[in-house]
Amino acid sequence: FAFVELRSIEEANACLSLTGVPFMGAMLKIGRPTKYTGPIVPATTWQALTGATGPGLDPQTADPTTKIYRELFIGNTTPEMKEVELQDFLGAAMQQVGLTLKQGNPILTTRLSGKFAFVELRSIEEANACLSLTGVPFMGAMLKIGRPTKYTGPIVPATTWQALTGATGPGLDPQTADPTTKIYRELFIGNTTPEMKEVELQDFLGAAMQQVGLTLKQGNPILTTRLSGKFAFVELR
């Protein structure tokens, strides 16, 4: 990795949209350093700016090296759910709220296993967008969408299904609909281990808060968990 310093804040914000630009055989990823605490600035990608195509933009070209950026973890599934139904539902939900780049289901494959599933999307951009479906209701459950534990890429800002649609559900506060409050609702979790799983960590922390009376109402106060090796980030409601 590398760090660059730009001559103005405006140009630094604009430079975020170079993410995905090809250089010497690699697609560069551009984001904020971990110490950044400023506002979230909307950005696009090199492909969107130029109309260029390449590995990671359309997986019909199937570059396996980009799969780690196109795969997402789906938590809170139930034994009654079927892979085809889940894939069709998530694809339709993305299209409903305008999170797709083109026509057709953006989800290529779904692997369902009891309380969780993994889905692979056709582009990095649509995988990033799909994170904002977290909280979407399906067959009586509110799905949790995040990155697999092996993900080591940049943290991509995301919102929730409730914020996108204005829908409400159990355990969700109206402030969740305002992405500008996320920086105040997100916490760093250190000293995690490779054996930990996102859904297990989220359930444990939520239960621990409830056990000692740190919650304001019923339900798990933790909305999303992103686990990466020795640390994690959790977003509370």
Describe the structure.
The chain is α+β, with helices and mostly antiparallel strands. Helices cover about 25% and strands about 20% of the residues. It is built from eight helices and eleven strands. It has helices at about 10-15, 45-50, 65-70, 85-95, 125-130, 160-165, 180-185, 200-210, and strands at about 20-25, 25, 70-75, 105-115, 115-120, 135-140, 140, 145, 185-190, 220-230, 230-235. A hairpin with a 2-residue loop joins β4 and β5 (about 115-120). Residues about 55-60 and about 170-175 have low confidence and may be disordered.
Which structural class do you get from the secondary structure elements?
Answer: alpha+beta
Sheet with most strands: 4 strands, antiparallel
Weakly predicted, low-confidence segments: 54-62, 170-177
From N to C, what is the helix and strand string?
Answer: HEEHHEHEEHEEEHHEHEE
Q: From the alpha carbons, calculate the radius of gyration and give it in angstroms.
A: 18 Å
